[in-house]
Amino acid sequence: MPAVSADTLTLPRISGATIDQTDRPVRSVTTGPRGHEGEGFPVVRAFAGVSQRALDPFIHMDQMGEVEYQPGEPRGTDWHPHRGFETVTYMIDGRFQHQDSTGGGGLIENGATQWMTAGSGILHIETPPVELVESGGTFHGVQLWVNLPAVDKFITPKYQNLEGKQVTLLTSQDGGALVRLIAGDLDGHVGPGATHTPITFAHATIAPGAELSTPWRTDFNALVYVLSGRGSVGGRAVEGGQLVVLGAGDRITVSADGSQDSNRPALEVLLLGGLPIREPIAQYGPFVMNTKAEVIEAMEDFQAGRLGIVPPDALRPHRVRR
C-alpha cells in the first residue's frame, strides 16, 4: 500500500472534460520484463521495447519491488557515476538511503522522492538502511531517468529531497482517485519537484470502479505505467507491469476495474509526460550524452576521478553477518 494517503473528500478536484477536449488514444501497450539491479534487488524494466522517440525526454525507468524482504535479503547499489541527466527515486513504500559526492543525501522513505541532477558528473550510492537489512520489510519504489538537453548536460550537480508530505494532493471528479503530484503541472496545480526539463510526474491510486480523467499538456508526450491492479487506459485493458504510450490529445483517462485482487485493492498508476528534447542520444551505462565522443570523455573523466570523490564517511552496502 502506498505510504501517502488522504481523504479525497477534502482535496481539490481535477476539472472535468470540456466539449472541445479529446482523450489521447493508445498507441502501444508493452509489458516490462523482470530483472535485477545493483547487487540483486528485483526490478521491472518499465520502458523495455519502447522507442526512444516515444519516451523522450525520459530515458529509463525501473519499478523496484514490490517485495517483502526477509532479514538479510535487502540489496542496493554501491557507489557509481552519472553524467548528463537527472535521476528521480520515488519510494512508494519502505526505505532507501542515498549519498552523493556533492554532500547530498539522506533517508528516502514512505512517499518521499530524491531528485538528483547529475549534470557534469556525480558519484552516488543507493542502499537499504541497516535496520531494513537486519529485520527485512517492505520495499517498493521507482527510479526514473530524465534526460537533459545538450545545453544543460554540464550544469553543476544538484540534490533535492522531497518528503511525502510535500507532494500536491488532488482527486478526480468522482472522488475515487487520489493523485500525488510530485513534479510539474496538472490542471493548474503544481508539484514540489524543480526540473530542468519540463515534465509532469504523478502517482494515482484509483478505487475499484472509479475513473481518473485529467487534462494533459498538448506539447508533452504522455505515458501511463501500471504499478499494480487492473483497469483500462483510453479504453484499453491493462494490468501491473505494463506501459501505455498515448498519442495526441488534451486528456488522459484511466479507469479501474470494479473487482481487484485482495492484495491489490486499487489500481496504482504513474502518469508521466514531458517536453521532448529531440536531440541525438549516446548512452553507455550511467552516462547519457549526445555523441559517442562525449560518452568516451565521461568514461575517461570518471576513471581520472573528475566526476567526484567518495567521501571519507561514505555509506556502504550493509551485510548481515552469519
TrEMBL record:
InterPro entries to which the protein is assigned, alphabetical: Pirin (IPR012093), Pirin_C_dom (IPR008778), Pirin_N_dom (IPR003829), RmlC-like_jellyroll (IPR014710), RmlC_Cupin_sf (IPR011051)
Keyword Iron: yes
GO molecular function ontology, one term from the record: metal ion binding
Residue span(s) of domain Pirin N-terminal: 45-146
Chain ranges of the Pirin C-terminal domain: 202-307
Cofactors required: Fe cation
Top-level taxon of the source organism: Bacteria
Binding site for Fe cation: 80, 82, 124, 126
Keywords linked to the UniProt accession: Iron, Metal-binding
Free-text cofactor note: Binds 1 Fe cation per subunit.
Pfam families in the cross-refs: Pirin (PF02678), Pirin_C (PF05726)
Family: Belongs to the pirin family.
Protein name in UniProt: Short-chain dehydrogenase
Species the sequence originates in: Gordonia spumicola
